[in-house]
Amino acid sequence: MGRSxxxxxxxxSALIPGRAEEMKPRIGVLTSGGDCPGLNAVLRGVTLAAExxxxxxxxxxxxxxxxxxPGNFMLLNRRSTSGIMPRxxxxxxxxxxxxxxxxxxxxDRAVVPADVIAAAKRVLAGERVxxxxxxxxxxxxxxxxxxxxxxxxxxxxPKTIDNDLEATAMTFxxxxxxxxxxxxxxxxxxxxxxHKRVMVLxxxxxxxxxxxxxxxxxxxxxxxxxxxxxxxxxxxxxALRMRDTRGSIYSIVVVAEGARAAKGQVVMHxxxxxxxxxxxxxxxVANEVAARSGKETRxxxxxxxxxxxxxxxxxxILGTRFGVKAVNLIHERQFGSxxxxxxxxxxxxPIADAVNRLRLVPPDGxxxxxxxxxxxxxxx
Length: 380
Ligand code: F6P
Known about the structure:
Blueprint: E1 26-31, H1 39-52, E2 56-60, E3 73-76, H2 78-81, H3 114-126, E4 129-136, H4 138-149, E5 153-158, H5 174-195, E6 198-203, H6 210-218, E7 223-225, H7 233-245, E8 251-256, E9 268-270, E10 276-278, H8 281-293, E11 297-301, H9 313-331, E12 337-342, E13 345-350, H10 351-354, H11 366-373
Parallel strand pairs: 1-2, 1-4, 4-5, 5-12, 6-8, 6-11, 7-8
Antiparallel strand pairs: 2-3, 9-10, 12-13
6-O-phosphono-beta-D-fructofuranose binds next to strand 10.
């Protein structure tokens, strides 16, 4: 039996038959996976850079799902991208589920069904879209690789607030997420001081501690717990008592969602969709610290506030540079490449080198050592 495809908000091309623009080469772009600040800067960068080469830009909606028949898309041009750079989220919509989800966990590679890819090819051919810019994280790059292998010319643009892709030194979205953590910690400092409490802040980052480490450093945390350094509850309490002896009446603890006790497991909770998601370690740490130290303790889970809102200056610039680079890579026909940030330069690497390779915090690296040197405990 044939697969049934969702019917979407398909937008017909505004092309007028007979006009010269009709034959402009068309490139496609989509945003996939979890959203993050800076995606709209990429879309604006793609659209404006495409003008230079006389490309028309087709933005597919809701991630890869927009590629399914009958095609769900909008044209991106100066008008539709005007004023979007400061906006968080993505004007194209996104999803981290659906027919193309090609990653079912760290290291696993699920195969996108052949009929799904064939259907996408038909839509792309029908709309005269020659190549596709895929803006997404590790899972989306796994899908991009499979589309490329199936003959769809793809360019990847890395995106994740977690900053955990080995193939790029930095992704846009990370700086904005860290800014949210820093802002939250500044606020927690004032209430923690007033009440002489221990305040625990749980932050995102999946299996990497970058958001916790950078946010904790910038926000003046006293304890930072990251997945890369398993912790001991008693060591955390020792660090808090040490602060007492120095006359510090309150403490701030930042916990990455993927952190775990050396003698414990990563904390997950079931979602409405029947999946398990990271989250809950903040509450566990707060309860244990309160029980073992007798200190009044509260927990805040920052959650999706880290993904929302306006991008920082850095993320606007990085997003724009990534978008422009993606169009240049299309023009150079460097298909199968992913934009990559290395040594302050925007370059490219094979998408194949980018998937399934996580960049984790080196426990003995300079950042961790710097944190230790300013008396931050990692609970180890
Ligand atoms: O990968 C980005 C991220 O925000 C992680 O830090 C977090 O674990 C996850 O996505 C949350 O995903 P969702 O939006 O599906 O809850």
